[in-house]
Amino acid sequence: MPTSSELAPGSVKELSAALAELVPTGPTVAVRGAGSKARWALPPQLAEPDVVVRTTGMDRIVEHAAGDLVVTAEAGVPLASLQEQVADAGQWLALDPPESDATVGGVVATAVSGPRRLRYGTPRDLLIGVTVVLADGTVAHSGGKVVKNVAGYDLGKLFTGSFGTLGVIAQCTFRLHPLPRAMRVVTAHPDDPADAARRLGPTGAVPTAAEWDGSALTVLVESIEAGADAQAEALAAAVDGEVGDVIPAGFGERPWSSGGIGLKVTHRLGALRETLSAINDVLPAARVRAHVGSGVVWVGDDGADLSGLDTLRDTVDQYDGQVVVVEVPAEAGPDLDVWGPVRGLEIMRRLKERFDPANRMSPGRFVGGI
Amino acid sequence: MSPSAGSKGPFRHDHGGEGGELASLAADFRTALGSSAVITDRAELRTYECDGLAAYRCIPGLVVLPETTAEVAHVVTACAARGVPFVARGSGTGLSGGALPVTDGVLVVLSRMKQILAIAADDERAVVQPGVINLDVTRAAAPDGYYYAPDPSSQQVCSIGGNVAENSGGAHCLKYGFTAHHVTGLEIVLPDGSVDRAGGRAPDPVGYDVLGAMVGSEGTLGIVTEVTVRLMRAPQAVQTLLAGFPSIEAAGAAVSAIIAAGVLPAAIEMMDALAIEAAEAAVNCGYPEGAGAVLVVELDGPAGEVEAELADVERLCTEAEAFELRVAADAAERALIWKGRKSAFAAVGRISPDYIVQDGVIPRTALPEVLRAVEAVAADAGVRVANVFHAGDGNLHPLVLFDASRGETERAEQVSQEILALCLEYGGSITGEHGVGFDKKAYLGRQFSEVDLDVMQLVRCAFDPDGICNPGKVFPTPRLCGERPGRRTGVHPLQEAGLADVF
Question: Which residue among A215, A272, B293, B426 is the one 20 to 30 A from A163 at the CA level?
Fold first, then answer.
């Protein structure tokens, strides 16, 4: 298989010019930031793209309007660098995916999330403006740099989680939050995490995260000093836990290893028990990390046996859930459907046809062969 | 099939009036939905000639009031088959003319679809039909300790379907976000009449974010027939503070200080002296006498946190020269504080025969500068502007007061337009929550480039290639779906279509 050639633009303008130059030859194009999720839910045996656009040269933080709690960054800025910069003003971009070298563009393109989504949501919720470049070099903006804004269609949401199949996310503007100044960690070992999860809400505490790893439930209170103890103690009392101030090792990390199986399983909030049980039925040796209260369970298994995938999909479908094979085992055959069945696929195909009529942006990378 | 609606504009569809397509549609709808669901009488049609923005009026060709998804699908399918445009309408409280009817089209009124289908406390979701009133979701969820967060000022009458179309916010969206953050599932009748679903009760639906595209699309991408929304736990504690300041500048400084201190209130609302005067005249809210501006700051969350933050906010307001602080002691006092704020739009009717409600957004830190500029613009034109706004997120609602009988209309409109120009000059937006609709479509091209609008149009074309779904709204000039944005470099069509490869 031929090796992809690489483009490494240093600005949105260069990116646009480079893509426009490719139009006459019409190669397929994939977008890559740090590459930490380049193989994330990658359909097995997908052809290598002709050209890879590396965004890591587009690494300017364009503007940090601290008083407005807003930051604009080019797609190639590492999330960690952005966090460092805005932390100087006591702020952060409230996204905590564990892929430590990820770029902001990559985070948005894959819509990844971490434990603190419980409080702050996911990339779509914090992205307030976007600059995108289409396959033919067309540069377009939507949103802006004010949080409240309903002018025009929200292309940002459409491109969030689109895995490079609509165009290139070139620049992003995000809403920021104040950095919490106090932290408490509640740890419990409930027999039934679903029952424990139900006890959290009525305490009146507002945790930033609640993670179940198969044996321990870790609940974070991240707030101001006043009232942090009261919140933590109320939560600890509700789930028979203990209050500490250290986040345990492995918190928020993906439970799989390279070459094994990694799944993202979603479910309606009231069906955590049923969902964990369905996972256990199909992959009894799997490790789980559940974002309790968010309806997401990450699953890791060292084996390569995905024969129970359809069964698991059928079961969680009863709970409105879906299963995406995020880490694809090396042995997976071409028949593996990593994304699974999708509601509203027809309208998604039509969107793809409009944005990328020549089907050059990562063809086959996304749902339903898009 | 008639030519695309987009090519002809909203008011010039030729569907033959009484004896043509509309008459045949009316007959079809009577058979399928029953006569009580179809309105053709001109006097009755007139009831629907405008939404909350009465400046634009247009009598619809035909009104239909479906009660089920299947009926909506039937209506839309029939319209699509004849190339007749249609407009969806909820409670008709929108302030941008988004539900303005089309003369030769069908107005699909969803107010009969008002069932709450499920309050699923365990899932923290409610499933409702589009005609359900915003506040009724909270009422239904309250016994389980939950509420629906987006709270537009019209929440007692506006519908969830309309909220979805407009991506409605409200005073509390500073902390809790807009409708887009609270919708997890939709059932949609697409402009070709097919029924589709996006999302559900679970998070992160796989695929493109169709929910994100639909919410805030102002009824131009389809008709929503079922909405699944997040329910939030009622906060443990709520504190509402009313602070009187000598001037807008002082109140603005307090807002900046609160945000800089890392406090995220549920709401920060500001009113200037003229808006206070109007509110007093209308509802006797008892705001601090002689104030140049008042702030309403609401904090909610865990009790200890709220108490500490309230103390911070009181201190910061005092440091910013607040001369009176009043903390609501109970729900009744809280309601009185909010009454003044929420009545402000209607209240200016007490001090001015006519007024225009404007809706623009600026970066919060530009507030004092922009308000000075607004004052100068108003003074130049010789009209008064009352300012009411969501200060926490820089969302201005200037009320331009005028007297049409004295020929001031034009000057007032000029001032209203100049305020939008100021919003854009300071890097803001022409609308924070009322939408572009019919009213502001001419301004969208000032906020976005032609290419930006062309690319947005790609979304429209994916959903509504024939341009029959709420035509003539949002976008300034009609666009056809055959055109492609951006540069053209003479590529062979086969190559461009991906059918030929030069490699």
Answer: A272
Q: What is the DSSP string of A314-326?
A: HHHHTTT--EEEE
Nearest to A67 among B308, B364, B487 (CB): B364
Condensed to tens digits (0 to 9), the pLDDT of residues B379-409 reads 999 999 999 989 999 999 999 999 999 999 9
pLDDT in tens, B129-170: 999 999 999 999 999 999 999 999 899 999 999 999 999 998
Q: Is A46 on the interface with B (CB under 8 A)?
A: no
DSSP collapsed to 3 states, B23-68: HHHHHHHHHHHCHHHEECCHHHHHCCCCCCCCCCCCCCCEEECCCC
- Whether A357 and chain B come into contact, CB under 8 Å, resolves to yes
ipTM of the complex: 0.97
Whether B496 contacts chain A with CB within 8 A: yes
- In 3D space, the residue among B44, B39, B10 whose CA is nearest the CA of residue B26 turns out to be B39
| Binary contact (B207, A348; C-beta < 8 A) | yes
Residue bearing tokens 């634009």: B56
Residue the block writes with tokens 């104030």? B291
CB contacts, 8 Å: A353 with chain B: 462
The token duo for A197 is 């999860």
The answer to whether residue A304 neighbours chain B at the CB level (below 8 Å) is no
Q: Phi and psi of B374, rounded to 5°?
A: -60, -40
Sign of CA dihedral B390, B391, B393, B398: positive
Closest CB to B206: pick one of A157, A340, A347: A340
| CB-CB neighbors (< 8 A) of A113 in chain B | 204
A67 close to B (CB below 8 A): yes
Q: Find the residue in A nearest to B234 (Cα).
A: A204
What's this model's pTM, rounded to 2 decimal places? 0.94
Query: Left if phi > 0, otherwise alpha if psi is -120 to 50, otherwise beta: which for B407?
Result: left
Share of chain A above pLDDT 90, in %: 96
To the nearest whole Å, the CA of B408 is away from the closest chain A CA by 28
Please give the structure tokens belonging to residue A115.
């434990």
DSSP H or E segment with residue B324: strand B324-327
Using a CB–CB cutoff of 8 Å, tell me whether B444 touches chain A: yes
Burial B228-264 (b: 16+ CB within 10 A, else e): bbbbbbebbbbbbbbbbbebbbbbbbbbbbbbbbbbb
Could you write out the three-class secondary structure of A328-359?
CCCCCCCCCCCCCCCCCHHHHHHHHHHHCCCC
Report the DSSP pairing between strands A91-92 and A70-74.
Answer: unpaired
Q: Is the CB of residue B365 less than 8 Å away from at least one CB of chain A? A: yes
CA distance A151 to B434: 9
- Look at strands A182-188 and B183-189 and give their pairing: unpaired
In the structure encoding, which two tokens stand for residue A4, read together? 């992809």
The count of CB pairs under 8 A between chains A and B is: 316
